[in-house]
Design the sequence.
């Protein structure tokens, strides 16, 4: 016997109530999404303002799968996926968002329904980081439809749906009855305002669950990093290098020709930056050139001298040194192509008479690290998903 709309509604409300009791953090987020029956989606969909569901799809899920589906939609919204796609290719962004959300829920002990996208390589990564690792021809489909255009807006229903059920479709009646309700209000909310509202809801849900002792440790570890959009690597590199600028205001007494007043003046010196390029066989030469060009564009802004090192298992060739006004150029051929060790770069710096202001290392982070962090800042620009034991880590996205 086919499930009636009332049966589907009871199933959804029961699953939502069980989430509130068993997983109060996720349950509190789900409560912010009105449940809207719709034939416009093959399964479920969210636009950041509501959870739209196909009754036939929900009827096909078991109870655990229904809970997973509700939590899946709520996390898309709480993490602001509808506002973070921006210029990215739509299908790759949809896949990346699903990989991120599904892994979080599976790690929380929830059972994913059949067909959910899962890959343990992406554990702990934000959607932007996963996007960089998803190929153009990645197989599979998201669990749900992402109506991530304008908040509250959904695609027009297919022509076949009108011919099959006409005006009696569940969503037609719902939208007619709620023409002036939450959906119309949502269409007037800018994406940034809706994202801010969800960020507040995420923080409130986490705080309340933590106060009650019901926020698992893995959520506490991941929320701060995953809730915020991850800036492109260029922006993060620029932020790091600008922080090295040695310019400040001083009050040195001026010469007599400048008058008796002592006014603040901008003083400073050039920063000393070491840049290391991983030339092992796993690193693409085009990516090395792109990274070097980005450093070249930024070093003049921060008045930084750059020492360029090439290293796979050992340092290859002599260091190249560039003044702030000199363009960074790479040799036509780069020695290397072997294994990866990071210790030679740190040993070379330790033998130098002048301590650098910072080291920036471009690598896939798969190699031998020194046992201890040095006494100067280190920023790793990482291609791939490997972690680093210390220092700052920026995903090449």
Sequence:
């Amino acid at each position: 016997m086919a499930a009636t709309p009332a049966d589907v509604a009871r199933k959804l409300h029961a699953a939502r109530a069980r989430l509130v009791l068993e997983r109060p953090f996720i349950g509190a987020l789900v409560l912010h999404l009105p449940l809207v029956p719709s034939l416009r989606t093959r399964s479920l969909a969210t636009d950041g303002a509501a959870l739209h569901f196909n009754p036939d799809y929900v009827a096909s899920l078991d109870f655990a799968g229904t809970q997973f589906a509700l939590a899946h939609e709520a996390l898309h919204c709480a993490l602001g996926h509808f506002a973070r796609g921006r210029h990215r290719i739509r299908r790759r962004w949809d896949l990346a968002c699903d990989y991120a959300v599904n892994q979080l829920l599976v790690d929380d002990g929830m059972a994913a329904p059949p067909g959910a996208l899962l890959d343990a390589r992406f554990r702990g990564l934000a959607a932007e980081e996963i996007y960089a690792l998803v190929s153009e021809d990645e197989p599979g489909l998201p669990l749900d439809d992402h109506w991530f255009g304008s908040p509250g807006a959904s695609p027009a229903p297919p022509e076949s749906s009108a011919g099959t059920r006409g005006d009696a479709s569940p969503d037609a009646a719902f939208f007619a009855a709620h023409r002036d309700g939450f959906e119309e209000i949502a269409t007037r909310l800018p994406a940034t305002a809706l994202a801010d509202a969800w960020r507040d809801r995420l923080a409130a849900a986490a705080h309340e669950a933590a106060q009650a002792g019901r926020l698992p440790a893995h959520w506490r570890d991941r929320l701060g990093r995953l809730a915020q959009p991850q800036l492109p690597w260029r922006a993060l590199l620029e932020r790091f290098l600008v922080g090295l600028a040695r310019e400040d205001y001083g009050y040195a007494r001026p010469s007599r020709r400048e008058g008796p007043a002592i006014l603040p003046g901008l003083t400073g010196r050039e920063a000393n930056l070491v840049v290391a390029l991983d030339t092992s066989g796993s690193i693409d030469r085009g990516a090395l050139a792109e990274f070097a060009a980005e450093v070249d564009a930024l070093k003049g802004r921060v008045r930084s001298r750059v020492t360029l090192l090439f290293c796979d298992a050992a340092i290859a060739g002599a260091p190249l040194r560039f003044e702030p006004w000199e363009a960074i150029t790479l040799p036509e051929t780069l020695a290397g192509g072997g294994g990866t060790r990071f210790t030679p770069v740190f040993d070379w710096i330790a033998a130098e008479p002048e301590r650098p202001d910072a080291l920036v290392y471009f690598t896939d982070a798969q190699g031998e690290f020194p046992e201890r962090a040095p006494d100067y800042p280190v920023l790793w620009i990482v291609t791939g998903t490997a972690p680093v034991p210390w220092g700052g880590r920026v995903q090449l996205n």
Observations:
- The chain has 15 helices and twelve strands.
- The longest strand covers residues 271-278.
- The radius of gyration is 27 Å.
- Residues 5-226 form one domain.
